[in-house]
Write a structure and sequence with these properties.
Length: 343
């Protein structure tokens, strides 16, 4: 079966009512893609269900989670942009205020041990608090959000279907959002088809690009997730943006200017690139690694070359091959899945 997420009822997220007037939900469950590693999320504490997923999706696209009802989670995480804020170097939030970082992708989060560019959150079930209460994103309090949901006639029945009774609590609210985000799995790109046995899914140039990426980029962007989720200083010019990165969280000088390694998946839709969106194109990214890496005390060792050189040596053929392979990591299914859309 091509699609690894099983939906027994495909007619819609919420099917027609049964005789007892209880909404019927599809049999939604999380299934690990066969070629992916084991997820790190603790599903035993929050198993994905049809009702929980339905509630989480409704919450994800509900702008009433923000102070003035203008900003939903889906505002900065657009499905058509692989759940990023495509075209925005920095996230745009309430009152058209600018954040200080590029909105990361809501994608394959079950495998992330930490969240945000600086790893400031260690549990997906706590992830949503940050954007809701951030004054330049949604600028609301959880107490106000929950009070609003309790007064809405639609939400208490949805919480009952998902969790057994009509009580709207912080934990249930956050777990429902997690259930939706956990199902935002991208694993149907041409590359995924290739590694699962469809040798014709990649052409010769893309296969060559895969080898270049493994050899020259794989120390950071390895594995099927194309990230090791570590924090690294990749040699950006910090005069352009003085963001201290991971140091903000740890106050450890060794973490100065280190940021979480992003995935290479779905780059066609997720630009601009880097934590501050400074690079508008993949060519600009490759230019940086080839000749723009700046020296600093915490520069990642992978970018230090023999003889004092910095960066990653790439000839024109290798650049072309890398870009060809990166195109094979774009997952058309992911950005079109009806079950993940606002509908």
């Amino acid at each position: 079966m091509r699609h690894f997420l099983l939906f027994v009822l495909l007619a819609g997220l919420i099917a027609c009512n049964r005789d007892d007037n209880t909404p019927a939900y599809p049999d939604v469950r999380f299934e690990k893609p066969a070629h992916f590693p084991e997820p790190v999320y603790r599903f035993e504490n929050n198993p994905v269900t049809g009702a929980g997923f339905a509630l989480g999706r409704k919450l994800f696209y509900d702008a009433r989670l923000s102070r003035d009802g203008s900003i939903s989670c889906g505002f900065c995480h657009l499905q058509s942009a692989a759940f990023t804020h495509h075209g925005h170097d920095l996230s745009h939030g309430i009152d058209n205020q600018l954040g200080d970082r590029n909105a990361p992708a809501v994608m394959n989060l079950a495998w992330h041990p930490t969240f945000f560019w600086d790893g400031g959150v260690h549990d997906l079930d706590l992830f949503s608090i940050n954007p809701i209460e951030n004054p330049v994103e949604m600028d609301e309090t959880l107490d106000n959000v929950l009070a609003r949901l309790r007064q809405d006639p639609e939400y208490p029945p949805l919480f009952e279907a998902a969790f057994g009774d009509r009580e709207v609590t912080t934990a249930r609210f956050l777990k429902a959002l997690s259930q939706f985000m956990l199902m935002c799995v991208s694993a149907q790109s041409p590359y995924d088809q290739y590694v699962q046995g469809n040798t014709g899914a990649l052409n010769a140039e893309q296969i060559a690009g895969l080898q270049v990426v493994r050899a020259k980029c794989g120390q950071c962007h390895g594995g099927e997730l194309f990230s090791d989720f570590s924090f690294r200083n990749n040699g950006l010019n910090h005069q352009y943006n003085p963001d201290e990165g991971r140091f903000r969280i740890t106050q450890n000088a060794e973490d100065m200017h280190k940021f979480k390694v992003p995935s290479l998946r779905n780059l066609r839709w997720t630009g601009p690139y880097m934590h501050d969106g400074r690079f508008k194109t993949l060519d600009a990214v490759l230019d940086h690694y080839a000749m723009g890496v700046v020296e600093s005390p915490t520069l990642d060792p992978a970018l230090r070359q023999p003889g004092g050189a910095r960066g990653i040596a790439l000839n024109e053929t290798e650049r072309t091959q890398i870009k060809a392979f990166l195109d094979a990591l774009n997952d058309e299914d992911f950005i079109r899945r009806r079950d993940l859309s606002e509908q």
